[in-house]
Design goal:
Elements lengths: L8 E2 L8 E2 L5 E5 L9 E8 L8 E2 L6 E6 L2 E5 L8 E2 L5 E7 L4 H5 L10 E3 L1 H4 L1 H12 L3 H14 L9 H12 L7 H9 L3 H11 L4 H19 L5 H8 L4 H12 L3 H7 L8
Parallel strand pairs: 2-5
Antiparallel strand pairs: 1-8, 3-4, 4-9, 6-7, 6-9, 7-10
Length: 276
């Protein structure tokens, strides 16, 4: 599918170090309505500051988001590596983040078709998306817009199917991080009672890519979480705690997935400069 135009287009990083998206401007999250708790990770609002634009990195997290800005509604497909969106200064973005493995049912499409893409919501929801877009444009504030977005997803809940058992089992297994990262597909197939071929197909449908890519992304997310919760720990210890073989493994994957070094990521997240 073709990505959308407007402020939500992506580019490659420049020579300047990008800023992690949640560290730029004002970014806030809040819980989704209880009825959507199993399906939606959060609602969020991000205001990009005024002034000269600077490169920003949206780190892959295994999720799919529906985004609203004054340019309309779009779906941000699952990313294999960081996205570097070009967003005008002063832009307000409202978002709803689906939990990993969930969005395919609400969008009625294989997520492999939209991996790394921004696609207008109208492509999936047609007239309903256009009507929602108009209502959100006329809403008085960000809180009301987020509520309207959650209501629209809630209306589609009866027709949505939960992820297959093997997809939920795959996600749970990978989140534990207690497996061989060289080729998790075989052990996952055994653990979930699914053939390797079927598991690969379902992972591409429900995650947008294979289990090995998801494994790398979840491991990176564990590292980000550890940087926030253990800011004074050494990078070597953070690497082992997140599931990397060693600090060199962390460094290689962090650069491949984000374009940033582990030290720079920790610095942006408020980690200690004295830790080595």
């Amino acid at each position: 599918m073709d990505g959308s135009s407007g402020p939500l287009t992506s580019t490659r990083p420049t020579s300047a170090k990008p800023i992690l998206a949640k560290q730029r401007g004002i970014y806030r999250e809040r819980a989704a309505p209880e009825a959507l708790g199993r399906h939606v990770e959060c609602l969020w609002n991000h205001r990009i500051p005024e002034g000269p634009p600077s490169p920003m990195a949206v780190v892959p997290d295994g999720c799919v988001d529906i985004l609203w800005s004054t340019h309309g509604l779009a779906v941000a497909g699952p990313d294999r590596v960081a996205a570097f969106p070009v967003i005008a200064p002063g832009t307000d973005i409202i978002g709803l983040r689906f939990r990993p493995g969930v969005a395919a049912s609400f969008l009625r499409t294989s997520l492999s078709q939209i991996a790394g893409e921004f696609v207008p919501l109208e492509v999936f929801w047609g007239r309903a998306a256009r009507e929602l877009e108009t209502r959100m444009q006329d809403a008085p504030d960000a809180t009301r817009r987020a509520d309207m977005l959650a209501d629209a997803v809630l209306q589609r809940l009866p027709a949505a199917s939960p992820p297959p058992d093997d997809i939920e089992a795959t996600l749970a297994h990978l989140r534990l991080g207690q497996h061989s990262s060289d080729n998790p597909v075989r052990s996952l197939a055994v653990a979930t009672g699914t053939s390797e071929r079927t598991l690969r197909r379902r992972c591409h449908e429900h995650f947008g890519y294979g289990a090995k890519t998801l494994d790398r992304i979840l491991r990176l997310q564990r590292f980000l979480g550890a940087c926030r919760s253990e800011p004074s720990a050494t990078l070597g210890l953070l690497a082992l705690d997140a599931g990397y073989a060693d600090q060199a493994h962390l460094s290689r994957e962090a650069r491949e997935l984000t374009s940033l070094s582990p030290a720079e990521i920790r610095r942006q997240l408020g980690g200690s400069r004295k830790a080595a």
